[in-house]
Design brief:
Layout (H helix, E strand, L loop, with lengths): L14 H11 L3 E2 L2 E2 L12 E10 L3 E8 L1 E6 L2 E2 L6 E4 L2 E10 L6 E5 L10 E3 L21 E2 L18 E6 L2 E3 L2 E28 L2 H5 L6 E8 L2 E4 L4 E4 L3 E3 L4 E24 L7 E4 L2 H17 L16 H14 L3 H12 L12 H18 L2 H19 L30 E2 H20 L3 H22 E2 L4 E2 L2 E3 L2 E2 L5 H9 L5 H12 L10 H13 L3 H17 L38 H9 L2 E3 L6 E4 L8 E8 L2 E8 L2 E6 L3 E6 L6 E5 L5 E4 L1
Parallel strand pairs: 27-31
Antiparallel strand pairs: 1-2, 3-8, 3-10, 4-7, 4-9, 5-6, 5-8, 10-11, 12-19, 13-14, 14-15, 14-18, 14-19, 15-16, 16-17, 20-28, 21-24, 22-23, 24-25, 26-27, 28-29, 29-30, 30-33, 31-32
Helix pairs in contact: 1-5, 3-13, 4-5, 4-6, 4-14, 5-6, 6-7, 6-8, 7-8, 8-9, 8-10, 10-11, 10-12
Length: 695
Amino acid sequence: MATTSKATWIWYPGDYEIWLGNKMNNRRTDRGAYFPPFWKQDSHYVTVEFSKAVELTEEETLTIATEGDYNIKIDGKMLFGMPKQFTLSAGSHRINIKVHNQATPPALYISGKTVFTDATWNVTFEDKEWIDESGKASDTSSTVYMSAGCWNFDKQDELPSGFKLSRKHFDAVGNDGGLYDFGRETFGYAILNGIKGNGTIDLYYGESEEEARDKEHCETLDKLVVEDGKITDLATGKTEELSAAYTMGNSKAFRFIYVETAGCTVESISMDYEYMPEEEKGSFKCNDEELNRIWEIGAYTMQLTSREFFIDGIKRDRWVWSGDASQSYLMNFYLFNDNDMVKRTTWLLAGKAPVTSHINTIMDYTFYWFISIYDYYLYSGDSHFLTQIYPTMQTYMDYVLGRTDNDGMVEGMTGDWVFVDWADKPMDKQGQLAFEQILFRKSLESIATVARIVNDAESAVKYQKLADAIGEKLLPYFWNDSAKALMHNRKDGKQSQDIFRYPNMFAIMYGYLDKEKQETVKNSVILNDDVIKITTPYMRFYELEALCMLGEQDQVMKEMKAYWGGMLKEGATSFWEKYNPDEHGREKLAMYGRPYGKSLCHAWGASPIYLLGRYYLGVQPTKPGYEEYTVRPCLGGLDWMEGNVPTPFGTVYVKMDKNTVTVKSDGGKGTLIAGIGEDEKHIEIKPGKEITINL
């Protein structure tokens, strides 16, 4: 978003996102105890200067509102006090406004006939103007200005700090002896109706019935005391007058709530569902009802985990993780196309300088952050955001480059969490991991591309040379001719004998293997059941994408139905953090050494949304912002399918059966690609005109 056509609240870019993220990331509780994130949490700048040069053809009166104390300079002259309005004469003027706020991000709102706050205003967190002994202000300054940040707070009384998610009331669909069932996974605030008497009320929440009934081990619970017309939440210590419907102060994830009382009674339990209103602009439907259900549950999983930011899951962490978010962005591009949420999440993950650790402390997550920024640009065409985030990208890349070894490669150092995946086989995280070098190379390529876009040619060359240097070493260091694979890691100059799918499938995705080696790896690793299988939706996302890129949509369709369909057969109403078909009973609910540690609603479980949109409907941008795009539909064993993919200019509609393909687009320069080999056809897609071809 470069500009707006009306007044909107503005702030220093990233400030509001960090402040809002701190509020959200610190809501997690663990069995009633406050449980904050373990990584560095930054704060907003407390004093921000907003400035704008204006040219007026006639006198204009401006109305001002702020979040914080402020002063106003017009053409270098300070106005008295904190006026609610001020008038500018016709001609050229310079507006400088400083806003201070310790509690919430300094924010500014100005409305006038032609002058109003929007993303074109300049902001800085330090005004390096000084006055010498003669009283003369400095005529040089090293102050760095940024374009203002904003969202959609377009009314003067719509304060950014007052933002709240929407709520909707729901009643339980069943009650079995105090076990209330809300029918599916949900998120919000329990409501206790018709409390009578004096005594205690205990609430036990569960994503499963087993969890809700297990009072000793369920992940979340609440305890209340009712006495003399008052009710006290023992977790927070807050006491209030008892009402006909008492709403809990903390939100929880659950499907079931088990209620236990002593000395008092509760007539019923209902809830306020809390959510971010998101329009599902993307759609998918086909002849296979199981696959339709997978899409629907994937979309619902995304609805639950798309809140102030893209979060990992709604029960346990409720935090913003870069690896999770980078996948949510891609699913979002095929479901909501909410660019603002992508930017908010990116800013929150970035934090503030100085950089003291990897994002979320995880090396791989720093790399996903870099890669996701270019992904955002490809799908949105928003170059303005790149100019804002690029200095932060440089700061993070400087941190990464300061932690490379003698080969110019990254290794886990003290304080680094080298994650990769939750693997069912012990994984050596020491030395040079092939997987990490591949992500590192792609990160360097991403920042090099952004540098070119923002006209930093010198840095673009530097980053590209570093990326190329890593690329030249990948095969010599990690390829094993006998195994026909990229080996897992290298220590003391020697290859390990471990083979994992991760580096091999990412090398396919990023085009780091030639066609011959791609086919080799497909058979020796990806389709080889002797190589340890992936049991997290997190990495199944990339494994299936790599197969789709190799034209294996028929195989991927079978695997989607087996894996995600398997969760549905287990009763899933949202998709899980991890699914192993070999686990049964309560075993399938356990993780992290806890009987109910597994999240049964995890954003990375929704990847069919992306796969179906990009590789079956076949819609993908080839130039930023869908300026140019291709549609290469593939049935993958289906009889027919249809759906919409959202874009910056509207939607691309695709319908296909075994005989015909129909496409209609709202904009952009599109190309329909149908057929294989010599029979492949390339047909222009003209905006607003439906085309149908025979296969």
